[in-house]
Amino acid sequence: MLRAVLPMAAVLGLVLLLHPGQAATITTLKSLKLDVPTGDAMFPAGPGSDAINNNCLACHSADHVLNQPSLSRAAWQEVVNKMITAYKAPVSPDDAKAIVDYLVRTKGAS
Amino acid sequence: MQDQDVQPSGLTRRRVLGGMGIASLALMSSPALAQQTVDLHVPGGPSKRIITTSYPQKGRMILQRSSPPWLETPFEVFDKGVFTPNDQHYVSWHWANFPGDIDVDSYRLTVRGQVNQTLSLSLKDILQGLPSFDIAAVNQCAGNSRIYEEPRVAGAQWADGSMSNAIWTGVRLKAVLDRAGVKSGAIQVRFGGLDEPVMPGAPKFLKSLTIDHARDGEVMIAFAMNGEQLPLLNGFPLRLVVPGWCGVYWVKMLNDIEVLDQPDTNYWTATGYRVPDTPNNTVTPGETGFKMVPVTRNAPRSFITNLRNGDSVPAATPATARGIAFGGDCGVGRVDLSIDGGKSWQPTQLGADQGTYGFRQWQTQLTLPARGARTLMVRCTNTRNEAQPDFKIWNPAGYMYNTIETTHVVAA
Question: Are B248 and B295 in contact (CB under 8 A)?
């Protein structure tokens, strides 16, 4: 009985305490089971789009890149290098070159 | 720079201002119709972002990245009060691999390493077995406002909304460490959560604090914000709260605390999140040869929240300006407003102090003397007498931006 009451009290507590800035008297938490969107958009098609789709979308969605500012070739090269060395993205040298070329073509700056 | 026009793409601004109500907002959540966007007005672009309502337990948020989620708090939220509603508290994850399914009965927080007794604490142990306390504190990403760096730099293109304020409820980290018994020789404490890298060999997200900081009695293991359990995306069921320090230290879904007797060498502590060790962490683009140090504490900031770039203000008529400020890792000392582009400054009245590390509201009357373009500026000076700088902060990774904010209005 007590086990059934406690979760219910937690639910009611959530309803009653919805004002930001209010402190809690919470003594139990309620389990969560939620779906988090993943973002399934691909990069715009063009030379190198296969390379960037195949190598980059495993870790982050395309909007991560599309929302970046225009950057120089050196800056894009540095970004791709960081993904490979720091974050261990398994990108072949050929694909890395294709990805940098794609980024310079679509989001390049002098 | 807090300049965001929200509008559904494909509709004119006039129609939006005149006709958008609850019904049209509801209709636009249908994928068949135009998505609502926000214009961040950033030179060089891209300026438009989608307004999303698709994330669990989250209301209207600026979609900076779908996965791992970067959800920014829309700026208008900051005009409504000092505490950010949980459903609009910003969201930032480093790795996409974190659970959406968390069972509160089986969840455990481990305390291990240089301790007399390894602990495996249930949520009941934490919520019911240790004294809790509340603290107001701003959670701000080190990269907040990165989009305003000139020249632009790569990284999350946050405008001013990767910051949010809440009253956090939890237990003192010190109490948990004391229960485990920290051995002499301990120098750091490292924190990890349920998030895991996607690629094998990639560095798990971990951050460390010095043992003294960890035991300062303010660092919290939080289980609630604003009176509710944490939203999943803000770190349910437990997250570290490090008052006054950048959000990167506020490890989410905290399940592992390791007391170290050697300096933490993991990527996120030893290599990532670095700024130049120069005044205001600022260098000239292209400059080299400076030492890099980790981001740590927040710097003072302030914003006008009720007037936006392009707004019209009646000339020769008293008007109200208001906004929010925070001191960084100490309180707000004063907030001053300039209506002449920084030539002269007038004090403002501070609202109630709701906690050293939280937002504080400020308000003042202003009278723009004659018609024409006017430049408003707002400057926070914290209780250690550190003021926001009037020059543009710039560093290669775009961290710690706290330049005085400017709002361009028209006196009409």
Answer: yes
Distance CA A24, CA B183 (A): 33
Chain B contact set for A103 (CB, 8 A): none
Q: CB distance A68–B154 less than 8 Å?
A: yes
The predicted model gives A54-74 an average pLDDT of 97
B261: pLDDT confidence band, cut at 50, 70 and 90? very high
At residue B225, φ and ψ (nearest 5 deg) are: -135, 135
Cβ atoms of B335 and B306 within 8 Å: the answer is: no
Find the helix packing angle between A73-85 and A93-107, rounded to 10°. Answer: 140
Q: How many Å lie between the alpha carbon of A109 and the closest alpha carbon of chain B?
A: 10
> Which among A17, A67, A109 has CB closest to B64?
A67
Partner residues linked to B217 by β-bridges: none
- Which one, of B218, B172, B209, B217, lies nearest residue B188 by Cα? B209
pLDDT, tens digit (0-9, with 9 covering 90-100), for B354-368 = 999 999 999 999 999
* ipTM of the prediction: 0.90
User: Does the distance separating the beta carbons of A88 and B199 come in below 8 Å?
Assistant: yes
Q: Which two tokens stand for residue A93?
A: 């040298």
State the alpha helices, DSSP H only, in chain A: 2-16, 49-56, 63-66, 73-85, 93-107
Local confidence band at A24 (pLDDT 50, 70, 90 cut-offs): low
Cβ proximity of B260 and B188 under 8 Å: yes
CB-defined contacts A:B, below 8 A? 164
Could you report the per-residue pLDDT of B155-170, keeping only the tens digit for each? 999 999 999 999 999 9
Mutation target vs A (from B55, B63, B67; most A CBs, 10 A cutoff): B67
